[in-house]
Each structure stands twice: as structure tokens, then as C-alpha cells.
Amino acid sequence: MDASLEKIADPTLAEMGKNLKEAMKMLEDSQRRTEEENGKKLISGDIPGPLQGSGQDMVSILQLVQNLMHGDEDEEPQSPRIQNIGEQGHMALLGHSLGAYISTLDKEKLRKLTTRILSDTTLWLCRIFRYENGCAYFHEEEREGLAKICRLAIHSRYEDFVVDGFNVLYNKKPVIYLSAAARPGLGQYLCNQLGLPFPCLCRVPCNTMFGSQHQMDVAFLEKMIKDDIERGRLPLLLVANAGTAAVGHTDKIGRLKELCEQYGIWLHVEGVNLATLALGYVSSSVLAATKCDSMTMTPGPWLGLPAVPAVTLYKHDDPALTLVAGLTSNKPADKLRALPLWLSLQYLGLDGIVERIKHACQLSQRLQESLKKVNYIKILVEDELSSPVVVFRFFQELPDSDPVFKAVPVPTMTPSAVGRERHSCDALNRWLGEQLKQLVPASGLTVMDLEAEGTCVRFSPLMTAAVLGTRGEDVDQLVACIESKLPVLSSTLQLREEFKQEVEATAGLLYVDDPNWPGIGVVRYEHANDDKSSLKSDPEGEKIHAGLLKKLNELESDLTFKIGPEYKSMKSCLYVGMASEDMDVAELVETIAATAREIEENSRLLENMTEVVRKGIQEAQVELQKANEERLLEEGVLRQIPVVGSVLNWFSPVQALQKGRTFNLTAGSLESTEPIYVYKAQGAGVTPPPTPSGSRTKQRLPGQKPFKRSLRGSDALSETSSASHIEDLEKVERLSGGPEQITLEASSTEGHPGAPSPQHASRSEAFQKGAPHPEDDHPQMGKPGSRDLRLTQPVNSHL
Question: Which residues form the PDXDC1/PDXD2 second domain (predicted)?
Fold first, then answer.
């Protein structure tokens, strides 16, 4: 390119091309800066500084632009980077620089040059897209061309509009017809630009019985036109689609053209399918657009050209009206809008233009053919041969149930059930679209919401392939990613109902119906202090769910968990993500319930520990004081005198037990320490509650992750061994004549046998509760004053 620049006689043009090349190289290489250069960013990249009096050179200014463009990439790593626009993009950018330079020429040279640029570009576009004898209007805003066409139609149909203005429109209101599938906001934009009230807009519904649901209903349109004429209105303009903004469907343009000619209506066509007019084979529905009164095209995205204006081609014989409507201008600056496109078309050539459009269409056809072989994927575009847009969605019917994910409601389903299934479908397809966008960024996928079908994924290579450089390998990778995600989608859909049933059957858990969540479900743990009628946030519940999330993530399962407020209230919930088909839902739900219950009990124990201990200490002090007073009464006053008490204790020792108090933290009760000193072991007291655990807890195989079903062979082996073990127990029970019966009897060699002493009762109770007996190793059987414990049970001769 440097050698070519040397051949240019005009030094300004040569310097401009050289500077553009250096500037683009610096900006494109900015992503490969080193960390040392990152630390030397200009302060003015973040905080505007004072304007320097001496000025700066071009390199410093470009460095500032570079910092402004890429300065936030460290903070936002997911932000999209600038694409490499290539040589054809450099030509488009050069056009803007040349436009500023050309505007400095003298008027005569400027007039000749701008006229040549405008006429050449118009002629090339009309020939490429088969629009004979047309004129071109270049505009930055894509909708601006249609607004100018509406002004031209008003001036053509209302002859006195220039003189009387809107009084003419008031006597006979114009009507602009738009399809219900038109891009959002188009009608409001036209009314704002034209100064017309919204009743001048008329939305034509799409087909409901026959044909595509995104095509304009021609019969209903004709009925609306007749009704407007009878009411004294003037049908002015009809906007048809050659590829709707959503799914790329093409209206019946041939039939619409006949209807417009019959009633004198201006027909305007727009849409991405107009690009196919440059190909050798064009479908009849799109080819009919060449007979319309005007059309708007966007060659910039089609050809991957940045900063290239949109083009509106139109046919009209009155130059005065086009000038009044703003479609033509005598200003050279307006004519220079075509300069970037003029340069880019020459750089690409006719073969390059056709090749880019053909490549995009082949990508869409390749994806369509591949998706036809994939189960559970529904393609929405019906006219598959002509449309370069592919719109698909996940679709599956569950066995023994009503079809789900259908656009038409099933009569057997209630409206609420249909809405719930619709939202569930949207959530799964939204998750699929986001996953595919991350895995194959070169595909340029978009996730969109359609009124009838719901959430879908759109592949429109005509608008993205030239910029992103999409290739056939990217389409194959996209199909492979779709196939890899389908098992997870299918299993999640099938496990949703099982998860709901398990949660509803588990105490303490509440199933939350959140159809916008793409996982298997949402659950909330209801703690003891949970106010079910309140919709406000619950701090205690949030604390429990936060601990539950931490515990579940520590298990390192394949599931993803997150917590957040319920979509109908502010209460915290646990969201369970997508699941595979070998997921053990019962174990999952039971683990959630047991873990949440354990967290709640531990939390309550810690919260109440301080108060319980304080009250226990106070109660122990009171009881110990009472015990001291009772000891004083039993021993007498004389024993408290130092000298006299020692003499009395020597002659008549006092057999007193050590009486203290012990506090059971688990049970929260105060107990006596007497058993510790009497039996040399502490009594059992209140047995602490067992740690909650699922009854379905099972032993996992080495390498098996939590919440996974075991293999069929191991399950069968486990069931066989369990059954044989139960049979052995039943056989032993039949041989022994029934279950064992253990009874505890106590007799005394003195006193009445029916009235055991308190000491004997305490020992009996300790034995029943399993406490260790200090005298079991040396029993005093048959001796006077000793206790005789006998264990009697039925004698089994077989054992």
C-alpha cells in the first residue's frame, strides 16, 4: 500500500492515506499492549484535564483515543472488543476523511465531483439490486428514508399541501398502514417526524388461519382500506416487509402491489431479504419488491462496512416534489454522504459484493439443514429457501401429558397452566441462547421474545457474518453445541415435576413456582419463626439460606445453586440449576431439608446459649444456697463452731453426700451432680437430639459425585443383598419364638421387696438408660444389705 501511495500526485491525498493507515494500525494493535504500558495511561483518559496551550501531536491524541476506547477493559472483561474491519473498512473510513478534504475545493469542482459520486453510486446500487430507473437517498438514520418517502407521498396526493398545510390533512386524514410484525417504534417515529396524530397509523394484523403468522393478512388489509375510504380518509402509504425484523418472513409483496395500484397507495418495502436481489436466484416473493415505489436497504451490515449510510431507492418523476420532500438537495455536503459507499463498492467490486451476500445465505442454509436433523429443535422460518434468517427454539413434549412449549394453547389446559408452561419454555430457550452466545461468539446469535412463540434464538448472518467473520466451521460448532445442551434441557424439563412433588412431600420445604428460572426448581426453607403471610424480607431466612448455599457448594456436585428473593416477594429462596438425567432428586431434596434444619438448630442454639447459661447459673446458685441451708439444719448449730464441731465430728461422723449442680447445654436443663459422686459416672439425663440426616443417605462409589443415581448393576446388587438380609432376620425371629423381651427385677434381702430405696431406683434408672454401673465388676450377691439385680429373659434352646 505504501508503494501505491507514492504514485498519488496529490500530496494531501497521499498523506491522508498514510496517516489513516498508521492511525488504524495503532488503534487495532492497542489490545496487545503490555502491562507496563497499561500503567502509563493518561490521566485525561479518566478525568478531563485542562486544555494544553501548546497543543499535542497526532500520536499523543491517538494514544488518548486508544485509552478512551480500551480503558475499561480491565474493569469489564466481558465487554465486546472492536472488530478488525479489514481493508474494505479502511476504505469506508477514508471516505469520511476525503469528504472533509473535498469540501475545501472550489464550487465548480465540488459540484462536478459530488454529482459524479452520487450518480455512480445510485446507478451501481440500482443495477446490483435490480431496481431500474431509480433514484437514491443516502441517510444516516435507517428510518429517515421512510419519513422522507412519507413526505413525498403527502405532497403527491395533496396538491394544496404546500399552500394550505395541515388544513388539507384535517379535512381528509391520511392513513399509513404498518404490519403488526414491523419493527417496534417505527409508527411512533413516523408520526413524530411528520407531525401526524397516532390515529393516522393503522396496524394490519398478520395471518391467523393460513400462511405464516408473521405475514400481513392481505384480505383483512383490503377490508380496512375500504372502511377508511367510506369514513372519508385517504389511504396514503403501505409499509411491507421483505424479511421482518424478528424472524425474516416476507410479505406477499406481489399481491400487495396489486392492491396498492388499485387504491392508489404508495408501497414501500424494507427488510434484510432485499440483499438477496443481488444473487442469481431470487425467490418470487422477494423479486416482486423490484416493482414497488420505494425500498430501504442497509448495505453496511450486509457487506461489513463501518460508518456507511443506509440507502432508500425510489421512483418519482417530479424533481420539484422530491426537493420539497427532502429526498434531493443542492448542498454538496449532503451529496458527499455517498462517498464512503462509493469507495467501498469500487474496492469490493461486483463479485466481492455478491460473494459476501451469497456466503451469508449459505451459512443460514447450512444451519437450517443441520437443525432439521436435531431432535427437539423447531425452526420457525417457513420459507426456508429464500430467507437468510434462521430462528429456532427448544421444543419437547413430555410423555403422558399435554404438549408443552406450543404457541397455540391446548384446550385441556387452564390459562394459568398455559402461561406457566410458556414462561418455562422461555426460560429454557433464554438459557440455551445465552450459552450458545458464549460458546460460539462468532455466530452473532441474538435472543429475542416473540409475541406468539415466546423466546427464540435468531441467526442472521447477513447482519453479522461480514463483521464477525463467520465461517462454515462456526456453524458446525454451533450445531455441536446445541446437541450437547439438549440432554441437559430435556432432563431438566422431565425432573421439574419430580422435584416439585418431592419438595411438597418434605416437611419444612416450600416449593416456589418461578417459571422464569431455567433450572429444575426453586425451594424455600420455612423456619420456625417464618411468617408465611408476610411478603417482606426475612433476615433469619436469609441467614439460613446463605448457610445452606455454602454447605451445598462444598459438596462439589454438578448442580449450580444460587440464592435470591422470590419473584413475588422479598423472601430468600434457593434456586437449583440445570440437572442431568442421572440426578437423584429424592436425595437432593432430602439433603436440602436436612442441611437447612441442622443450620437452623445450630443457629438457634448459638443465639439462645447466652440467655440459657445465665439463667442456669442463677438457678444453680439458688439451689446450692438452699442445699447449704438444709445441711446446716441437719448437722445442727454446734457442728458449726470450730472446736466443738471437730470434737462432735470425731465422736459421731456425718455421712454427707457431695451435692452440686451440672448444666446440660444440649438439653438446657439443670441436673444434680449426686450420681457423679455416688456411681463414679454421670447419668445420661436428656439424650441429645440426633443430627438430622436423610433416610435415603447412601454410600457413594469412588469418584461418584453427590446427588447421582448409582449404576443399574450396583443398585440390583444392593437390593439383592438387602432382601437376603431381611429374610435371614425373619428366619431367626421364627426360630426364637418372637423378639427378645428384657426385664429388670430388683429384690432386697432386707426391707420390703415392693418398696425399693431411692438409691436402688436411681441405679435401676441408670441401668435402663445404659449408664455405666460402678459395682458391676464386683457384685455383692446374697449379702445382707446388698441389692440383687437379675436379668430375666425367655430361654431359647435353639440359640
Answer: 387-493
